[in-house]
Amino acid sequence: MAWRTNLFGALAFLIVGGAALVLPEWLTSLATIALANALVVLGLVILWRAGLVPFGQALFYAIGAYTVALLGRYTSWHDALLVVAAGAVVAGVVAFLIGFLLARYRDIFFAMLSLAMSMILYGVLVKTETLGSTDGFHVEAVTFLSFVPHGRARELAVFWFVLALCAAAALFVSFYFRSIAGALAVPVRESEIRLEFLGISVNRLIHLKLVIAGTLAGVGGALAAIAIGHVDPSMAYWTTSGGFVFVTILAGAGSIAAAFVGSFLFELVRSIAIDIMPGTWQIILGSALLLTILFLPNGLGSVFARGSERARTGTS
Amino acid sequence: MPLGITNFGNGALVLTAFAILTDGLVYAAYLFVVAIGLSLIFGVMKILNVTHGSFYAFGAYGAAIAVGAYFDGGFPAAGGFLLMGLVAMAIGLVLGLTIERGLLRVVYGRDEVVVVLVTYSAFLMLEDAINLLWGTNSYALYQPLAIGGNVAVGGLVLSGYDIGLVVFAVLLALAANVALKHTRYGRLLTVVIYDREVAAAFGINVKVVYTVTFVLGAMLGALGGAVMAPKIAVTLGIGVEVIVLAFAVVIIGGLGSVEGAMIGALIVGLCRAAAVHLMPQLELFVIYAVMALVLVFRPYGLVTRQQPRKI
Predict the structure, then answer these.
(1) A interface toward B at CB cutoff 8 Å?
(2) Which chain A residue has its CA at the smallest distance from B105's CA?
(3) More confident residue, B135 or B264
(4) Distance between CA A171 and CA B133 in Å, rounded?
(5) Which of these CATH numbers, 1.20.120, 3.10.620, 3.90.25, 1.10.3470, describes B19-297?
(6) pLDDT at B266 over 90
(7) pLDDT tens-digit series, residues A128-139
(8) The pLDDT of residue A302 is above 80
(9) What is the pLDDT of residues A208-219, one digit of tens each?
(10) What one-character-per-residue DSSP string does A5-48 give?
């Protein structure tokens, strides 16, 4: 069963990668951002499975992005893989350190503490003039194994690079979900006390989830910085976190694919809405979120999951 | 003359300290008006209401437009301040009822976090509604500040409107305290705050209490926007900014109590004023650092009662 899912996933990534050659330019650049953000969402899915909703995941997103931007500005590190890895490590370490604290909190207090953390970073970034204050600053172009593409080639290179990292992350998260630590997410949500009585440390489980989610968000932010070519403090603002939470609820905790599809749909609908009906984007967003919560409590992913369940068991 | 210089130094220090104190108090007064509604709604309904930012924004727009038009018509000044309150109450009534009846009623009993997201989606929709209703223009309500005049205290010039705001906040705190502890309805509310199910079992109509609480909270949120309208440029995005600040206030003070909202507002107000006067770079940092710090040592805020662990 698992190998079949992996095969389908690999095929899907290959098809998307091939499709980039024929797709219009706006769609590939939109997909690049969507995929980068999907990594943050993937991390949130891990936490959401355990019933946790951080309203400050933008903290790690911004850390990843600013790490890439700072490396480009002050060092001679320009290799894409190297700077993204650095972004992931920095975000992961911060997540690990904050995790000691954050892992003890639940519900609204978890959401609020993580919100406070991200707003602290926002407050610092906004007032730091050497980092461009509210304007942020430009990100130096990255190289791919000392190869420096331009124009359309650069766009494709960035897209494939992001896509490859997404595939790796998806594979990793699917392993994690099948591991014991991953499978214990739902019990954490249902009854922590029972888990504790079974001799399992819930705080350590959540700490691990926080580190994974933080690292993924760091990678997402690093990739977004490369794709956009610019970083600014709004990457750490609470509305950015809110957007990620939004896609997570929309996609649901059921499947990994849903995180990618949800993120892509989000960006697509946003760009179309801003184009056709400016000023109503948030109304569309709000109603979509409401309808999802009311009618699909487990997210869009649950539609596919339910469908395949039916096909397998032969019931309707 | 060394003595003279020292004296001058002390004078400046005292002046700065005094400025921090007054600025902090004024800011705290306004934060309190906004946060008390948020805290009330959380205390009774256990809902962290993101839509509160929209109530604030609608209140600010409503006051800026209606009260501005009133003063332009040349009517007596006192009526303008009355109108400010009335506009806020009307907005709170309409928005509060719509959202509680139309939206929240459906999701009662769901996860706390899910309900936060429901209010978040309502908040997003109302943000665009503001854009559609009033556009991207910025509105300024300058008359109340002009009418309030200035008062010189020591070496500082204080605005009369600011002093009025502080007095109003103190009166509001007293009124809320009396209403909660010494009126029949307030005591019923306290019962619901302590235990919803027991309250329902004793015959309190919790549904009605919820509706009334939410509308009251919405009115207070709109009132916060209305009293702040003369001091800011009323423009898109003010709700987004204020809601995180209000969160910081109620989290620091402790959700669901008048004293908590007051202490939280004072701490945030004074910290911000101190940062603005001493190290402007730390203005935002300080607020959220304090919020994080309080959460670390007192996860349920500074003013809370003991929570039994329920299994």
Answers:
(1) 51, 53, 101, 104-105, 107-109, 111-113, 115-117, 119-120, 122-124, 126-128, 193, 238-239, 242, 245-246, 249, 279-283, 285-287, 289-290, 293-294, 297
(2) A294
(3) B264
(4) 47
(5) 1.10.3470
(6) yes
(7) 888 877 888 888
(8) no
(9) 999 999 999 999
(10) HHHHHHHHHHHHHHHTTTS-HHHHHHHHHHHHHHHHHHHHHHHH
